[in-house]
Amino acid sequence: MPTHNPFLYLLSRLYDAVTAFRNHRFDSGKKRMTVFEVPTIAVGNLSWGGTGKTPMIEFLITLFQERYRLAVLSRGYGRKTQGFLLADQTTDAKKIGDEPFQIYTKFGKKVSVAVGEQRVLAIPELLALRQDTDLILLDDAYQHRYVKADFYILLTTFQKPFFEDHVIPLGTLRENRSGAKRADLIVVTKCPLTLNSDQKNAYKKNIVRYTEGKQVPIVFSTLKYGSPYPVSKAAREWTGQVLLVSGIADDTVLKKEVEKRYSLQEVITFGDHHRYTSKDLQLMLEKIKKNKDWVVLTTEKDITKLNVAAFSGFLEEIPIFALPMMMTFDATDQQFVKECLQTVVEDKLRNGEAI
Description:
The protein is of the alpha/beta class. Helix 6 (about 195-205) links the parallel strand 7 (about 185-190) and strand 8 (about 220-225). Helix content is about 35%, strand content about 20%. The longest helix is centred in the N-terminal third of the chain and has 22 residues, at about 5-25.
């Protein structure tokens, strides 16, 4: 643990102690966890953002939407509302948050999408409205311990694995590395396509140091980017001359991908969950007017906040394209994940009882 800043070091130790005490109370049964009759899979991480939770949720939806009646429940971070909300045709990102709205936009016809800070209260409300639900995906719920999920998927990035990180404020961890022991599956995300078996074994060796002897399966995933598609009225023929605009937790992998595939002219980076303003759109417009061959390229998450009525005037002048991406596994790991989760869900559907 670095000690060059004693004040941050003490704050980190204090935060670590508080979260450890909280976890101990749940582990010892002094704080009650609720188990629901409907199977629940929790996806989360030990760090603050940027590990690929939304791509993982979308992967699970794609994997199981034809087999189960799915619901996704999220806290709805960054939304302007409170309490439980079930997404419908009147919903936007301000009401339910960026990621839930992205999921609803892509899968809303087949999947129920809801938000609620207190998920132990939100799940009964969700089930009251969607009584046929037989699998709930809990987004960003690794630290939400009032609900005891049937299966926990822990994500950590290849670029900044949790075993090299530190508890905030010295690092980005929301709890101690030992929290990895609660996982039923650990996914190393955003891996390079060149990842070899020696690198995988090195990561596995470092990860198992924090699972306390528990045999937690570890798999590796990459992000696969699709072809840009137009989202504004002014979107013209794709030129490949890119002004990259994004407001995500970490745009490192995104920038590398765009540099590799296109001619990256300039980058405008906003903070995660950035709320776009007319000033932001005016900046893009000015750059596009000065550079006639440029197009704006952004993420599907950002599109949920850009492609709105308030910016309709700008959308008629700025050629904006979205770059889709999805989480992928090699065939062996994907089949393992599918069979592992399906076994848990089927067992619960046959035998599950609420506690």
